[in-house]
Design brief:
The protein is mainly alpha-helical. It contains 20 helices and no strands. It has two domains: 380 residues, Up-down Bundle (Growth Hormone, Chain: A), CATH 1.20.1250.20; 52 residues. The radius of gyration is 22 Å and the shape is globular. It is a multi-pass membrane protein.
Length: 467
């Protein structure tokens, strides 16, 4: 006689009370960080008219944020793991709100650049801490993938409505209003994450301040060299390039001998991790390059108002607000590689179509097709990248993993603005061909990243049976 064996009940993990509210708070925090980038894009002409300055000044107004964000993210993730992700997240959000209020009162362009760097530092404190909080709230990988999808969808709405909201705010009250909108958002986020659900235990990882200083110097000097090169300031560019090399060598030497490497060896040694990080940099290179160049063309070549320029971006900005939920389901079923590869291919195709539209005099119907393809590409690639990096992180290093991914994304954003901005001026027009060339750079970057991802995916499939 066969004895029936009762099925083993599924193992369940206790759900922290209030975790849905906390997830919404973390997502809104990232929403605010992204909003600060996207709302500024359509404010560029008004900002130049109000405070004066050249294209280089506008590039620094954008990249001052991403330089500080990208450089400090490397240690901010480690700080979140050491001191408690919930503390780092709340501090970053509070500083972001206060910094936004000061930025709205900036009397000149270079004061604004400095305050944008402060905002970048505050964003660096909050973003990797937010991903670590999500990992704590959702320890099961399948649930975590869905939670990341919700986080990406809510935060992606910043892309959907940022340029349009920024255009409306600029038309109503000028560029200063795009910073004031962050203040009530910061208060709301702090209220949502005020409970005990987000508390994370502190760790023991050390932070090397000298190595971090070398990272900041390297990225800032590299950005300065690219911007100066685009402006034709050859002596300035050469000096900045020499400084970049010196700072980079100092960073490499400190990484080898320092007590707390900024680039976690365990993360960099994970199979496929370097390729995923490169893909993240390529996505932001393309995204911020498009967001920097097109607003100037739409308003100065086509004569669109800031509001209409923001509306014109909807084909690109709507998909990241809604499609990540679908991407989360796909990632949970087939893994992250296919969505990453498909997203990069769509983004490369979209940038190529945008370049064609710009070369043809910016006919909006063709431009809208390119923007839609680019938006779909971003919405497929980014959630899959976040899930892949967080899932492969060693125990207790989720904050460092999130910080590393977001750091390379911000480096990509910085290089995207610096590289594409080298081909345009404040009075840019499409008929000289330079803006079209600027849009081909992101297409090339995403194509290269897609080829490397395809190669890495094949290697992972052979070596580990990854689908």
């Amino acid at each position: 006689m066969t004895t029936a064996i009762a099925p083993t009940p599924p193992i369940s993990t206790p759900r922290p009370p209030g975790r849905t509210r906390a997830l919404l708070g973390v997502a809104l925090g990232y929403f605010m960080v992204l909003l600060d980038t996207t709302v500024l894009s359509v404010a560029e002409p008004d900002l130049a008219a109000s405070l004066g300055g050249s294209t280089a000044g506008l590039q620094w107004a954008v990249t001052g944020y991403s330089v500080a964000f990208g450089a400090l993210l490397l240690s901010a993730g480690a700080a979140a793991d050491r001191f408690g992700a919930h503390k780092a997240f709340r501090f970053g959000i509070a500083a972001f709100g206060a910094g936004s209020l000061l930025a709205a009162c900036a009397p000149d362009l270079w004061t604004l650049v400095l305050l944008r760097a402060v905002l970048g530092a505050a964003a660096a404190a909050s973003v990797p801490a937010g991903t670590a909080v999500i990992a704590r709230l959702y320890p099961v990988p399948r649930e975590r993938a869905r939670a990341v999808a919700v986080w990406a969808a809510v935060s992606g709405c910043a892309m959907a409505f940022g340029p349009m909201a920024g255009g409306v705010l600029v038309d109503l009250s000028g560029w200063r209003a795009v910073f004031l909108v962050n203040v009530p958002l910061a208060v709301l986020v702090l209220a949502l994450v005020a409970g005990a659900a987000v508390r994370c235990p502190p760790g023991t990882r050390r932070i090397d301040r000298w190595t971090q200083l070398a990272v900041c110097a390297t990225l800032a000097l590299l950005t300065d060299a690219l911007i100066a090169l685009g402006a034709g300031a050859w002596t300035h560019a050469g000096c900045a390039a020499a400084g970049t090399a010196a700072a980079g060598l100092a960073f490499a030497a400190r990484e080898r001998r320092g007590p707390a490497p900024v680039l976690p060896p365990a993360l960099l040694g994970t199979r496929g991790m370097p390729t995923l990080l490169l893909a993240g940099a390529a996505v932001n290179f393309a995204l911020l390059g498009v967001l920097f160049v097109l607003p100037l063309l739409l308003q100065q070549t086509l004569g669109l108002s800031p509001t209409m320029a923001g509306v014109a971006f909807l084909p690109m900005t709507l998909p990241p607000g809604f499609n990540p939920l679908l991407t989360g389901r796909i990632v949970a079923r087939v893994g992250p590689w296919r969505p990453v590869l498909g997203g990069l291919a769509l983004l490369a195709a979209g940038c190529a179509v945008i370049a064609t539209a710009v070369s043809a005099g910016t006919p909006y119907a063709l431009l809208a097709v390119g923007l839609l393809l680019a938006g779909l590409g971003v919405s497929f690639a980014l959630p899959a990248l976040v899930t892949a990096v967080v899932n492969t992180a060693p125990e207790g290093a989720a904050g460092a993993a999130g910080g590393l991914l977001n750091a390379v994304r911000q480096v990509g954003a910085t290089l995207g603005v610096a590289a594409t901005g080298a081909f345009i001026g404040v009075g840019a027009h499409a008929d000289d061909g330079s803006p079209a060339v600027a849009m081909l750079l992101p297409a090339a970057a995403c194509t290269l990243a897609a080829l490397l991802v395809a190669r890495s995916r094949r290697g992972a499939a052979v070596g580990a049976g990854v689908r």
